[in-house]
UniProtKB/TrEMBL annotation, chains A, B:
Residues of the AMP-dependent synthetase/ligase domain: 45-444
SUPFAM superfamilies assigned: Acetyl-CoA synthetase-like
Name used for this protein in its record: Acetyl-CoA synthetase-like protein
Domain AMP-binding enzyme C-terminal: 495-577
UniProt source species: Serpula lacrymans var. lacrymans (strain S7.3)
Keywords on record: Fatty acid metabolism, Ligase, Lipid metabolism
Entry keyword Nucleotidyltransferase: no
Length: 590, 590
């Protein structure tokens, strides 16, 4: 680690008393052999075992901050008491609107320590969406980054601004310091332990492509078990360093066009509670580096100099990483946890050349992030990169603490509660379903939506997939992304995977476009690799024909794209997913 | 892995049907977001993800057996149905009396799959002790290794004998084959899921040095969480191979003298359910090798040729390992999980020279095995081996899924329910106490003993320790091992640690012996290192004086041994713990 952390002095109130005890209040109501699962106490154990280890580094800002586990734990205690003093009661929602920063990391612990529920809000949303979430969640308080104030103009919710300085005079620091007054008196043993492990932990709102955002409520038990699964699956340890990044750019931003965001994004802490990684890393005693912005050169600096071992991101972000001029073979291997879409053979090859080991996982906000993983098999070592990539592109099998993943037939009627598996033939398309500890508790204040999603005691994901004979699922599409071409179901994902194998294609997205004869036909939007952009300049039609010919050698007729549009960039959500709705709108207008 | 596993053909009934489904029965009674924690389904996930990976190797016997996850899972299913067909009901106890072997590994899954409780019995016990355990546990059936029949002569319990051949004609194999008839019809979905994660998992009997053995009942939830903790702490993964060994020698044996066993032992599967490692290894998709016997040369063969990465054992066993003529630096590092006593500087140095990384943990049958670990600190790299060993000898801080460990004052009266910590001064001796998910549920059929052990909502271990300022506990002694010398409390453990640093001492044990003037005084029993045995032959008294002089330079007067006895070997329990009761008897007679 190259950080010169001595240059930063945490506030006096961030320093724990000399005889600090990390013992929680005694839980006299519980049997001796039980304690409720809860990820918040991970910080107490880390502060006990590795008090002076760097826990949280926030280096790439005007006022860099560095917190050891001992200091960070004290700040979390201060936050918990400050929240309680501000009137936060058990079960209350506390909203957080912030890019990756120590404050949102604190919030994942301090809010739970106060027995409240953290409501992280996507920084990419519009003011009316933010207002709706604050209203629907009934949040009593908002912790907000100074750069995002324009999202809450005119709203009445009480808030604490974080200037992200870690210095005295920063309103967030003053809030923490105020909390310290009570924490000094009472310490950890003064905080009531949440006895119900089924109590709410996180309330996330899904940024649905249509309709109002829905609140996804998760539990303490689920958060604990999902975090541990991420530690085991990622083999995170005390020698690990996890890199967080995301864009700090918020609405309205010059690079955004209405709702369409042109930058590539990666898993930020505000998205599905960062897939429980804010807890997983602490459980493993790892170090976390938070970057407010996405800056590939800076990312490579951290890869090369800061001991980074783990990060998460969608393939689009991984493409940005391998294509950066600073990219080079790494002195030590890094685990890249890939989700959101399947990595292509080309991407896998490029990552591996740099010493980055891709781990392909699949998950949703409803499942605390990843709940399946494509487990690599020893036999794959004998395969070509392309063959291996085809197997790796599948979404895999259930995660360490997840219950089984199934692919099931759609309901026969509104009231159909039977959950029946499709055959394990790699062909029959069904819906991905699962149940168990790492499934959300409910849609917040929406029993009707919960009932529908939990048909037959299983959570139904809305993702369409096949089940292969080896028990591995492969996502075909979201229900609405299937293209019904001449009566056949064409998977836009399968088409994209074939088109992506063309050597000149950087990224591709396929949507349905209506067709007089066939009902629907696939339309492909593609971006070209940097080195081929100029060659095809002014000849996009010619490339389109070339790609259509290429497709016909690899896909059945009904799945071949009828139209190909070469674009400079694809529209994406804040988490790097391609916004197919926007592409559909464009396709409809053509 | 050098095993030639093709030489072995599992029985026809061990081979799953071609379209096997690993899906359990649907649990319609539970909320969608809950599934009860239970370690048994680990095998279903392993068989799904790595069906053809070697799960269980049993190579060092007349009829070697090798089971992949797919085959092993089928055998477990057969066992579950065979048990149910034999009349085993949910909550019933099924006893197992066996050395490390596939049968006892099966039992850790098959018995739980039948919703029954596994009762592993120490193979070192006498027939009356075994009879008592079978009677007290109310076991309905016994799975017994052919080599241990003399332990149950004349008892009426129904039993299945395992000849440990894995071949047709072996009564245990016939039992499994019978189970297959039902499993073929019903599969995994035919087995009821245990909905209560607080249900019993294992009933172990502690082989107390005095009095009747006590039954320690653990839960499914605790077993699940303790197993995962062992995976995380041990960093076990699909690339790991765990080596089990133990002596198959049973009572009466030519090497035993009454109750005193002269061989060194290590953690066998029957001891505290092998500290949950039978489940931990499967959760991590690791390979397990089972050795019926302890044979250091054979162990080194496995170290060098079988890809071993993990094993557990007391320091006495580790001494046997490093002193074996086959010992040499290993091509890849092995984790040695050490418990039962603190490793000495000499032992740590010898292990590290071979590429064996010692991990010092502390635990009890009541805590599913380890619940604290001595976490190594980065700053230790700068210390001398001796200084580092002193720090590593401490028992550490709480384990991944354990709740906090405390050192507390003894109760002031019979009814004292207050649990008060001793100061963190590294001096004040108190009792080790803990609570939470990895504490036993109860003493089986002994509410009075449970009530006493759970005073004030904490489990009281009976081990005496100090709490260091850094939050690390260091065991001083079992309550009864404290020597009250001239009114001072002398820790026999602390004395042993100092005496063990003498370069000629191999092992040492210190007990109290009554003394006219001082009440009690320490007496040391020592064995000499191989290379010094002949030099001191016939001059044991001279060496005793030399060791007493050595002690006076390192210990306070009241803690110096008044007597030193050089012996050839120290008496030990089946798990390698030195039998101080025997030494006390000898000391009393002198």
């Amino acid at each position: 680690m190259v950080f010169i952390i001595n240059a930063f002095q945490p506030t006096r109130e961030s320093i724990p008393p000399p005889n600090v005890s990390y013992q929680q209040k005694q839980t006299s109501g519980l049997p001796t052999h039980l304690h409720p699962l809860n990820p918040f106490p991970f910080i107490l154990r880390a502060a006990t075992v590795y008090p002076d280890k760097l826990a949280l580094a926030h280096p790439d800002v005007e006022y860099p901050t560095f917190f050891t586990y001992r200091i960070w734990a004290q700040r979390i205690q201060n936050l918990a008491y400050a929240l309680i003093e501000a009137g936060i009661q058990p079960g209350d929602r506390v909203a957080v609107l912030a890019p990756n920063s120590p404050m949102i990391a604190d919030a994942h612990y301090g809010i739970l320590a106060a027995r409240a529920i953290i409501t992280p809000i996507n920084t990419r949303l519009t003011p009316p969406e933010v207002a709706y979430i604050l209203e629907h969640s009934g949040s009593k308080l908002l912790l907000i980054d100074r750069g995002l104030m324009q999202l809450v103009q005119g709203l009445k919710i009480p808030f604490i601004v974080n200037n992200d300085t870690g210095r005295i005079g920063d309103p967030y620091e003053d809030f923490l310091s105020a909390g310290r007054r009570f924490s000094a008196e009472k310490g950890w043993a003064g905080l009531d332990v949440e006895l119900d492990e089924g109590a709410g932990a996180v309330l996330c709102y899904t940024s649905g492509t249509t309709g109002r955002p829905k609140g996804v409520l998760t539990t303490l038990r689920g958060s604990y078990l999902a975090a541990i699964a991420n530690v085991v699956e990622g083999q995170i340890s005390k020698d690990s360093t996890y890199l967080w990044w995301a864009s700090s750019l918020a609405y309205p931003h010059p690079l955004s066009e209405g709702n369409v965001l042109l930058n590539n994004r990666i898993l930020p802490m505000f998205h599905a509670a960062g897939w429980t990684f804010p807890w997983a890393n602490v459980f493993a005693f790892a170090t976390q580096i938070t970057m407010r912005t996405v800056d590939y050169s800076q990312i490579w600096k951290h890869f090369l100099n800061s001991g980074v071992t783990h990060y998460c991101g969608a393939p689009t972000v991984q493409i940005g990483i391998v294509n950066n001029p600073a990219a080079r073979p790494l002195p030590r291997s890094i685990s890249a946890i890939i989700a959101g879409a399947a990595p292509t053979a080309h991407l896998i090859g490029e990552l591996e050349k740099k010493g980055i080991q891709p781990v392909h996982v699949y998950g949703l906000t409803y499942t605390y992030g990843p709940f399946t993983r494509c487990y690599d098999q020893p036999s794959w070592a004998l395969l070509s990169l392309e063959e291996r990539a085809k197997l790796m592109a599948r979404q895999g099998q259930s995660f360490a603490t997840a219950q089984e993943v199934r692919v099931v037939y759609p309901p026969k009627s509104e009231d159909d509660q039977e959950v029946v598996d499709v055959p394990k033939d790699g062909k029959t398309v069904g819906e991905v379903a699962t149940r168990g500890n790492i499934v959300m508790k409910e849609y917040f204040r929406d029993p009707e939506a919960t009932r529908k999603a939990f048909r037959g005691g299983y959570f139904h994901s809305g993702d369409l997939a096949v089940m292969h004979p080896d028990g591995v699922i492969a996502i075909m599409d979201r229900s609405k992304d299937i293209i019904i071409s001449g009566g056949e179901n064409a998977s836009s994902l399968a088409i994209e995977q074939e088109l992506a194998s063309h050597p000149h294609v950087l990224e591709v997205s396929v949507v349905a476009r209506s067709h007089v004869k066939w009902g629907e036909r696939p339309m492909a939007f593609v971006t070209l690799r940097q080195e081929h952009v100029s060659a095809w300049k002014g000849k996009h039609n010619v490339f389109g024909d070339e790609l259509k010919r290429y497709a016909r050698t690899r896909l059945p007729g009904f799945a071949c794209p009828e139209w190909v549009e070469v674009v400079e960039e694809l529209p994406k959500t804040s988490t790097g997913k391609i916004l197919k709705t926007n592409l559909r709108t464009i396709a409809a207008k053509l």
